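Entry 14. Structure prediction run on the chain below.
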Amino acid sequence: MNPRFSAIAKSLTISVLLLTLSACGYNDFQTKDETIKAAWGEVVNQYQRRSDLIPNLVNTVKGYASHERETLEAVTKARSAATSFQITPEVLNNPAAFQKFQQVQGQLSSALSRLMVVSEKYPDLKADSSFRDLQSQLEGTENRITVARQRYIVAVQEYNVLARQFPTNLTAKMFGYEVKPSFTVENEKAISTAPAVNFGK
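Output returned:
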């Protein structure tokens, strides 16, 4: 075979293959997978931001309400469980691990919510400038968590539609693009109401 013809044939074959992969959604999977990773990174960052606020928050509350030991210990324990959970890329492809991540973060949200309710009983604590600053930071962080989670949910939804619909589902099977887990409806209800950090002025 003519070497020049052989080279042209190979080039055409590669071009056809690339066009076929593109038409079947391969490039879309690559793009959406990267979008999910970026969105997940922001979710993790915001949860970490919240976790970093907790020690100062607990210490400030303790200064005014030290006998609320059970509530303070619950927050500390929940934070420990959340921070000890290993955040790895596999979490995004493992429904059980993803559910565990939701569970530990949900428990921390609940513990923080109870702490805020208890804090409401202490006017001197509510008037403390450090506490009010932490309250404001926590409220802002909770809002950022909600936004980051919503972006992640949308990114996963778009990816999963691509993985399930024809003909891109064939590409998903061929290259191992599995449907990814996302935050559950129950978890969304919990995050939308906890923790309550708005105090009367």
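The chain has one domain: 25-193.
Filed with the rest of this week's runs.
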